[in-house]
Design a protein that fits this description.
Immunoglobulin-like; six-stranded mixed beta sheet; 11 helices; 64 strands; 8% helix; globular; membrane; transmembrane; Plug_dom; cell outer membrane; TonB-dependent receptor
Length: 1059
């Protein structure tokens, strides 16, 4: 007879077959098994051997239970199958077969042994393919392979998690639990794949997924893990591990293609938008033994090639999915003037199609040193590019000379030694090194063009005005970056009775070399096409390092950050387990920005603070309560910090207010060579300048931003009559309270703790203060107010024996924030927050909130051809649109006077030259706060706000994030069919991925619109300085951007050969 396992513990059979696991241990590269062995009467079975064998490689691990019958085996390879033998001197042995382990999970396996005369216990498990709850999700190799991924991106896998939202667009920004995409963490085989510097909104240090997707073995997603070993994020952690070689030679070769011939033609407001693209992806993987049972190899390679699509073009040109206000006649006239007046024949084109390339590979070696020690080595390479700064709004056409090629080269390696020193004590020692070289080079940079903008162009006289920009984008004039991250880690695990004690130390060395100098080729603004023809410059600016040397502005600094932690996982009883942890992090750096004496004398702030010595304590606590074999309750509370981009620190070195000098001039007739030559007086001005420039610095009292996260989760196995048994229902509630969030203020406007002391006046309603200064020195500090988040998620899933499976979830988010911190520069973070007063934090709905999200995954696996699988996998998502704010288009409506002048400004940037984001004012009828309407009637303005649904704000300002983009619905399908190979053990495979299946079914469905920058400019305004009253101009509306590629179906066809 076979003996039943104890019902009051998580058994191997349950863990392996339905994916319920023990308490998550942390972001890791391995798995572990722990549990308690007892005898027939329930007494601890001390001195019992647990023999664990990884069948594919013969890796063997032996541990012995302690006096309480408890054992722990850590540092195990993920996956399986494993065979486990429980070898007792007093009782009948037990054998566990086909055991599979999940990444970063402490699999809890308890066993009650029987008397010698009873039959042996044999339990057989199966691979865990998929297991999901909002705060802890696992994906196996088969799930990864069968995911409908159009871009071969790990994000397409983890979007199945209820809390993971992937935004449309080329960057595919990933928000976890409503967080800023930059605050997440991604690690693979111990290698951190975060954008450490913080320039990429997609979160990777590269342009695309940085590793071959076929190399992945397992992926986990965690939000608010209780183990103090985890850190470096406030959103969520995506942890993965690469496959390893085994004693068998295995591998695959694949080829994929996607072309516009296999795609629909999207329609934007009834107009067809033809797509032209052809993407190819190909690669291979290979795993093999070098020395059987001892040394193993695995490698994978992938290459991607594609032309890059164009989203915007001149009206009537048929270029791009969206039309700008600029027409073909407007563009032709600009070309003519540039050639005839300035002698520049090449200003760029609107239809240039850039090329995308991406190449990546990984190599992994695994070495079984002996039964007690093993090691691995991983090397990863990726090099890719993308063209950025293309046209993004109807109001401005950017020509190809204004675009730039952003490239990254990534070199990584990681090595880990896993050691078992005794039955109770084991360690992991690792070193990782990551190097990223980033290039940002303007297309046609050899032309030497500065940054040229021509405003208010309307050749056709239809009243629709627009801008044209060409020449090297000012932020690319002098721009290069290299950062190297080296990490040393020591992690120890010690079993003490029912306590599993974990402790460790982590030391990061980040070396940054960054040159960022905007405007070193000159920035020229013309107010009209007539001014462009007459060489009448509205505004000219030029910046350079002292002595006209850009290298003087380069930031070179090194950070040395230390973290130590201790954690206790306490199995209090068979039903209840606790986790307590404490982590300490301390930031360090010996490199300081150059001291700015004038800033210190003017503001009292020392700009040399570099966060050296800043520290934080991160306590965690959690519990897992196994109420019965069908219900598990988990809860936790913890403090989390990390994920803040280092570019915010780098700003202090690049903009110390001394090394950089600025030159500005306005309203003059320029020489005819100004488009590609610096004004001689600007060069001389920099040589003679001594007044410095705008400075960025860190508040000497700055505290590390963090958040307290409280989580409660229930996992229930239930039976639904007439439908089936064994449904997994999970419900999660998360509350997050943010602390010390980052904020940017103009230090010139501060006076002690009162940030309004230097305000000399305000608008008539008291909402917008006036400041008597044009100086701008931006300080990174902590906000006076902090946001919070409330998240509720529930999901249901089940796998049937007939091959059918499903997983569905609903998530609601209610998230508030202050400054979203969406930019890499201090100036932009200061100017472009959606506020009334940029000197004060205003809490509102978060830019990253997804209020409602429904997700459905359907899968079916069968054999239409005997012994050859057919797989169907469908991903469906419907979610509410991203929030945006209704803002004002500040303009000069007072003849000869501009509200943003050098004597009386709102704190936005460079006086008259720049505006910023301010929430829109909604007038009432006969509003006493409004002086007059300019170029528009009161009735038209009121009707405009009524149409926008904003009349309820009459007499005041629109709330932050009062609008939202349209809902998004997506449906993707993956179909694969195995075919006979050249030999018995080989198989071929053909597969199809249909992106936006909904649009294939209904051409009017599946459209995607986004609101760039999280703003919608709805009104022109100015302010009369004498009375403080508003002057209201023309109404406007920034249309949501139509994402053409995401708004139509696309079919990818692939073939694969597995051996």
């Amino acid at each position: 007879m076979k003996i039943q396992l104890r019902k009051n513990a998580l058994t191997l059979a349950i863990a392996a077959s339905i994916g319920m696991s023990g308490m998550a241990v942390a972001a890791d590269t391995s798995s572990s098994i722990k549990g308690q062995i007892v005898g027939p009467q329930g007494n601890p079975a001390a001195d019992t051997k647990i023999i664990i064998v990884h069948e594919p490689t013969g890796t063997r691990r032996v541990v012995t239970t302690n006096d309480t019958g408890t054992y722990n085996a850590s540092g195990l390879r993920v996956g399986g199958p494993y065979s486990i033998t429980i070898d007792s001197k007093k009782f009948r042995d037990a054998e566990l077969r086909n055991v599979y382990l999940s990444l970063g999970e402490a699999q809890k396996i308890d066993q009650q042994l029987t008397e010698l005369q009873m039959e042996s216990i044999v339990v057989t498990g199966s691979p865990v393919l998929f297991n999901s709850s909002a705060n802890d999700t696992y994906y196996g190799a088969e799930t990864i392979k069968n995911t409908p991924s159009i871009n071969r991106d790990i994000k397409d896998v983890v979007r199945n998690n209820p809390l993971v939202v992937i935004q449309p667009g080329n960057d595919s920004a990933m928000s976890i639990a409503g967080s800023n995409p930059r605050t997440n963490s991604i690690t693979v085989d111990g290698i951190p794949l975060n954008d450490d510097f913080g320039l990429n909104s997609g979160g990777y240090p590269t342009q695309r997924n940085p590793f071959p997707l076929d190399a992945l073995d397992q992926v986990t997603v965690q939000v608010a893990p209780t183990n103090a070993k985890s850190s470096g994020f406030t959103g969520g952690n995506v942890d993965a591990v690469f496959k390893s070689g085994t004693n068998e030679i295995t591998g695959s070769v694949f080829y994929e293609k996607m072309t516009d011939s296999w795609a629909g033609t999207p329609k934007n407001e009834g107009d067809e938008v033809p797509l032209e693209f052809e993407e190819e992806n190909y690669g291979f993987s290979l795993g093999a033994p070098i020395i059987e049972n001892k040394l193993f190899f695995f490698g994978a390679y992938e290459k991607y090639e594609s032309p890059q699509s164009i989203e915007w073009g001149p009206a009537g040109s048929g270029i791009g999915a969206n039309e700008t206000n600029i027409t073909q006649n407007d563009l032709a006239e600009v070309r003519k003037i540039a050639s005839e007046v300035y002698g520049v024949d090449n200003i760029g084109n609107a239809d240039t199609q850039p090329q995308l390339e991406d190449e990546k590979y990984i190599i992994k070696l695994d070495w079984n040193i002996n039964d007690y020690h093993r090691a691995n080595f991983v090397y990863m390479f990726n090099e890719g590019n993308r063209t950025n700064n293309m046209t993004q709004r109807a109001s401005e056409l950017r020509l190809s000379t204004h675009w730039y090629n952003k490239s990254e080269k990534l070199n990584n390696f990681s090595s880990t030694l896993y050691s078992d020193w005794t039955d109770d004590f084991s360690t992991q020692i690792s070193i990782t090194s990551k190097s990223v070289e980033t290039g940002q080079v303007s297309l046609n940079s050899g032309l030497g063009l500065g940054d040229i903008n021509i405003s208010n162009i309307d050749v056709d006289g239809d009243g629709t005005k627009g801008d044209i920009s060409f020449g090297s984008d000012e932020s690319r004039h002098s721009n290069s970056l290299e950062n190297d991250l080296t990490t040393f880690k020591f992690d120890g695990t010690y079993l003490l009775d029912e306590h599993t004690l974990e402790f460790g130390i982590k030391y990061d060395i980040l070396d940054v070399e960054n040159l960022y100098l905007d405007g070193s080729k000159g920035v020229i603004e013309f107010d009209s096409l007539a001014d462009f023809a007459a060489r009448q410059v509205k505004d000219y600016s030029y910046s350079n390092g002292v002595g006209n040397d850009p290298s003087k502005v380069a930031a070179a600094f090194k950070r040395k950050d230390l973290a130590i932690y201790v954690n206790d996982r306490w199995d209090f009883s068979d039903e209840l387990a606790f986790s307590f942890g404490l982590r300490y992090e301390r930031l360090g750096s010996d490199d300081e920005p150059a001291f700015n004496e004038e800033l210190f004398e003017s503001t009292g702030y020392d700009n040399t603070y570099n966060l050296d010595g800043a520290d934080i304590w991160l306590p965690r606590a959690g519990f897992t309560y196994y109420m019965n074999e069908d219900v598990t309750i988990r809860g936790s509370v913890g403090r989390y910090a990390g994920g803040n981009p280092n570019v915010w620190i780098s700003n202090s070195y690049s903009n110390d207010g001394i090394s950089r000098q600025d030159f500005g001039k306005g309203d003059f007739v320029a020489p005819n060579n100004i488009l590609n030559n610096i004004l001689p007086e600007a060069v001389e001005g920099i040589n003679q300048a001594s007044n410095g420039s705008v400075s960025n610095f860190i508040d000497p009292n700055f505290d590390i931003p963090s958040q307290w996260t409280y989580m409660l989760n229930a996992d229930v196995t239930l039976d639904i009559p007439y439908i089936g048994d064994g449904f997994a229902w999970t419900t999660t509630a998360i509350f997050t309270d943010k602390e010390n969030t980052a904020e940017w203020v103009n230090a010139r406007l501060l006076n002690g703790a009162n940030r309004l002391d230097k305000a000399v006046n305000s608008t008539i309603d008291g909402e917008l203060p006036f400041y008597d200064t044009s100086e701008l020195d931006i300080m990174l500090t902590n906000a006076d107010k902090n946001g919070r988040s409330i998240i509720l998620s529930t999901g249901l899933s089940k796998n049937w024996d007939n091959g059918f499976k499903f997983d569905m979830s609903y998530t609601h988010q209610d998230i508030t924030e202050g400054n979203p911190g969406g930019s890499s520069t201090a100036r932009s973070n200061y100017r472009y927050g959606h506020f009334l007063n940029h000197q004060e934090t205003q809490i509102g709905t978060s830019t990253y909130e997804t209020e409602h999200r429904f997700v459905l995954n359907l899968g079916y696996s069968t054999e239409f051809i005997e012994n050859y699988k057919t797989n169907f996998n469908l991903f469906f998502e419907r979610r509410s649109g991203s929030p945006y704010s209704h803002t004002t288009r500040w303009t000069s409506l007072v003849e000869g006077v501009r509200y943003f002048n050098e004597d009386l400004i709102q704190p936005t940037g460079y006086g008259a030259a720049r505006g910023g984001n301010y929430l829109a004012y909604v007038p009432t009828a006969n509003d006493p706060n409004v002086l007059r309407y300019e170029g528009v009637t009161e009735a038209e303005v009121l009707a405009h706000y009524e149409e926008l649904g904003l009349s309820g704000y009459a007499g005041g300002f629109v709330d932050r994030s009062a609008g939202s983009a349209p809902w998004t619905t997506s449906m993707d399908l993956y179909i694969s069919q195995e075919l006979p190979g050249f030999t018995k053990d080989h198989k071929g495979e053909v597969y199809f991925v249909v992106n936006n299946l909904l649009n294939l079914i209904d051409s009017s469905a599946g459209k995607v619109y986004v609101q760039d920058y999280g703003t919608n400019r709805v009104i022109e305004m100015d302010i009369d300085q004498a009375t403080g009253k508003y002057i209201i101009g023309e109404t406007s509306f920034d249309k949501s951007k139509f994402e053409a590629e995401d708004s139509t179906y696309r079919i990818k066809i692939g073939v694969r050969y597995n051996f």
